[in-house]
Batch of 2 targets.
Target 1
Amino acid sequence: MKFSVGPYELKDAYEKKLRQRVTIFREATKCTKALVNTFVTTFGVADGMHKSIVNSEVTLDELFH
């Protein structure tokens, strides 16, 4: 879950961290199924160069309306 006062902007370093986490998870669990990066955020994920790592997102409005 991420909180920000506007759309959450992914940086290069965080994208790399997410990719490392997926690799570590796959190795630890021997998972062969598709893994989905889902972001639960205040206002969503900002469009940008690193948004491709986000498979789905849920905003506060979607949770509470």
Target 2
Amino acid sequence: MSENFDVDQNTDANPDVRELSEVPAVEVISRAAVMLMSSAAEKLGLSDADPSSSPYLDLDEARRVITALAGLVTASVEYLGPHAGPIREGLQALQRAFREASLHPDEPGKGPGEKFTGPVY
């Protein structure tokens, strides 16, 4: 069973919906970075008063998301313009939070995403 969706009909019903082709690349990249940052923060337990006892704490998952974020940021930094600084600072804060949350921290340069960003202390 298949359904045909009329994209124009959906956008007419909700004027706040934009066609992806109309969204500037910098906005798509920035939104992806924010989503990855939010996911990493959750997986580091940063949404709880005591991150070490957060039910969402998962360093293995956090490592993966932070590494993906680092790859995205490194590959797109030249296109981000004024957004680059805050996104890079957010990435570094997450990398430091990961190091602090680890019982056995990685050596500098071996932490999540550091192969793309260089060592974070």
